[in-house]
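Hi there, hope your week has been kind to you so far. No rush at all, and the record is pasted right below.
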Amino acid sequence: MMPAPDAFATPLTLSFSTGVLNSTSVVFHPGFQKYYIIRAGNSLFPLETLSSNGAQLYQTTAGLDTRGMWWNPINAQVERNQFSSGGWATVNLNPSGLAMNTYTAIYTGQLQPNAQSVGAFDYNNNRVIYYTGGNQIYFYDRVTGLPSGTLTLSGTSFSNLNVNSVIYTGQTGFEVGLLNYAEKRVLLFNISTGAFTGASQLPSNSPAYSQFRFSYANDMVWLFNSSSATWHSYYIWNLILPDVRLDFEAVLSPDESVGLVWKMNNQPDNIADFTLERAYPDEEFREINKQSPDVSGEYLFTDEEVVEGKSEYRVKMNYLNGQHHYSEVRVITRSASQMPWVSVYPNPASSEIIIRSSLNTTGNYLLFNAEGKKVMEIPASDKLTIKTDISFLSPGIYTLKSGAKSLKIIKE
């Protein structure tokens, strides 16, 4: 995945049960689908387990004065590096995946550049990585615990960076991440060359600090707000991959309807749904149809409310984490010589409908309920747009009639 120029905050947050001034790491266990957060600075400080949606499940003590903490998929365990010369150890879990205050030592000694270093795990190369300021990344071999080299970073300024924390994303070419706390930007680097390869701008209200409180787990960047003792999550990646393509077409049929077809090549599995939107002349886009993902990647809809002049259509792809992406806009032009038309929106509606028509009539629009009983007469005029209050109607399906034309309306 490529970094998005602008990151966005997701709804997911992780909060401590008690006030916490400083936290260093967020860990996600893909098997148990649980998060772990820890307060740095003392073995008696809290270690918490939370559900995949951020619900607090269990709190215990840290057991060790922890700095970095990570999920090791190679050994299938949660691990950590300690303050100063404490070394590396596991975070033991019970059979339900709750973090305990017990541990198993892996190596002892200062297996890090300085006492406050917060480790992150490079699972592709089985090594722990550290950053302590400047333009150097430090590698320590996970098998031996010994230093295994450094990486010189280049291509950007190294001022105003968080000096204790580094993230490992696993995204090819953008593996290493640092936080510019002054500009609130995540800087990304190639782990093979050290070259600066991209950045993602965090929202202006994001908490950002010069030390600790910066982590990465479950494909998201995490920033800790010490005032609320809460980790906030941010998605920094573009969701449309280079080999994903959306083909979208709109065709005006002889019966005055518009056929709308879209097809996805290599449809991603993180799409929540598709929203089809239409804009009449001089008006904003409005939803006219929504469809769930289909394994075929093919979708169609017929719009029977076609107006005189231009109508614009687009497809909005909505992703599970809240981000979205638009297709190209397709334009249909209907000439004045074609058959009369009547349209109603929004549909469904809760309080008001807007009737648009080319009929230019002085007669009435008739509204019938599902039993066929007339419930309203809406005076027409020489105006092409009429707003009508329907808030007093009961929820249900109604039919609007004007001459030979009839339209279904859903009252919410």
Summary: The first strand starts at residue 3 and ends at 15. The chain has three domains: 3-237, 245-334, 342-411.
